[in-house]
UniProtKB/TrEMBL annotation:
Family matches, as InterPro entries: Ank_Repeat/CDKN_Inhibitor, Ankyrin_rpt, Ankyrin_rpt-contain_sf
GO CC annotations, alphabetized: nucleus
PROSITE patterns attached to this UniProt entry: ANK_REP_REGION, ANK_REPEAT
SMART domains named in the record: ANK
ANK repeat coordinates: 25-57, 60-92
Keywords for this protein: ANK repeat, Repeat
Pfam families from the UniProt entry: Ank_2
Species: Capitella teleta (Polychaete worm)
The protein, known as: Uncharacterized protein
Membrane-crossing segments per the record: none
Signal peptide as annotated in the record: none
Amino acid sequence: SSESQDYVVDAVLRKGFKVTEKDKHGASVLHYAAGTRSVKLLKLLLKRCGDASVNEEDNFGSTPLHYAAFSNRTKTTQLLLEMGCKKDKKDHKGRTAADLAQMMGYGDIVQLL
C-alpha cells in the first residue's frame, strides 16, 4: 500500500539516507522515482530534496524528467513539469525528454512536453 511505502521512505530517511546521494551512474533516488508509477513517492522525495533537485543531471546529462519520459510515466512527467523541471534540458547525446518519448513512441508524453 502507499501508506507502507511512505513509512518505508520516512524510515530510510530517518536512518540518515540522503535523498541526494547518487549511484555510480550519478542518478539519485529522485531519478529512479521519476521512472515509477508512484506519484506519491515522487512528491514525498521532492519535498525532501527541494526544488533545485528536479533539474539535477546524472552522469549522462539526464534529469528526472528524462527518466519519466523514457519510462512512459504520464503522471510523474506532469508532476515534474509542475515542480519546475526544465523540458528543454538535453542529455549528453543532445536529446530532450520529448526526444526520448518520441523515440519510444509515447505520444501522450510528447504532447505533455
